[in-house]
Amino acid sequence: MIRVGSGQGFWGDDLDAPVRQVEGGKLDYLMMDYLAEVTMSIMQKQRVRDPSAGYARDFVPLMERILPRCVEDGVRVVTNAGGVNPTGCGEAVVEAARRAGVDGRARVGVVTGDDLMDRLDELLDAGHELRNMETDESLSAVRDRVQSANVYIGADPIVEALGRGANVVLTGRSTDTALTYAPMIHEFGWGREEVDRIAAGVIAGHINECGAQASGGNALIDWWTIPGMETVGFPVVEAQPDGTFVVTKHPGTGGRVTLGTVKEQLLYEMGDPSEYITPDVIADFTTIRLEEDGEDRIRVAGVTGRPRTEFLKVSIAYSDGWKAVGSLVYAWPDAAHKAREADRILRARLERLGLHFDAIRTELVGWSSTHGELVGEPPPDHPEVELRIGVRGKDREAVERFSREIAPLVLTGPPSVTGFAGGRPRVQEIMAFWPALIRREAVEPHLKTEILEV
Asked: Distance (Å, rounded) from C-alpha 226 to C-alpha 296?
């Protein structure tokens, strides 16, 4: 059996969680998931400004903090914190490891080759159209606006790094689940043809990937009864060579692992449950069997899978205009009526100025922002409402002018305004998502695993 603990569910998650995982009980592996689709474009922009950037910066001091304990206890770290610059991240971790005093006792594995930015034109010229999976449009339509392009890689290069003795394995855009099931493939020697076992590993990875979401965080079922969320225990997968596993957490930590919390996480980002496609296998979520195995222990068995496809998914982000969002708070009496009138006045002024946008969106926060018209009409004694209004468009100057039209409403609109201390809305570039497929033979020969000695 091996124990794979979850340490991060996204870039910005609880930085003490990996510490609690390493210090709170037995682990063999600590997986940390940092990447989402928009994260890659943010990191790419950072790297354009600073060639040494482009990865999860907070991962480096975290490693300096926990790596001595990991080395002492034999805990190996697998993460996609490398973002669009795994090499830079790896070099920074080596320096952090030396500062932490583990010289000569650790190795850092760095996986590269998922970043396709420098190869996009070559790939398009070779006939890889990278068509949008939703619109079927060729990437050539937005090629000049692409900010990042990364292919979701699977377990193979991670397994190679572990096989070469890496204590820490850093990747770019690895699929989230591989951070958990790659250690299983390495430890148990699963072959590519053992699709049921690898599919079980995918399920384990899917449960692990969102951190405390599987152990009580963001839970819908009886959320108010879940104890100790201030020190919530992140999930730990206890995996067996036959593919069965138990989801649990360290004793004495907050949160709760139940059939309900695990089922909720299994439904996360779910399309067709019978075809959960990863780079290494297609997992059938309809075959999952769950049962209680004691307090805070859920046993998972019965998972089946099918062989992998000939394609890999590509996550592409491209510039798609500009946006700005501003807000004003209106107080009793007739708070919602005042906010609606302010919205009408602002829109009329924008029209008078000849400003045109792709979209204008208005929410009345505190009244109708969540459920819209379903809430009905607000009573005149409703205490306060926040008018939140945003625009998006291709013309940056028009969006900037919108941002200057919010403040005048303080003295030229309905009374009782507050909440404008933050100043004018900030104009931000919009990053749009372009999902595509590419044949794996165009990618896999370019994947590289490098071992850095500490």
From this structure: 12
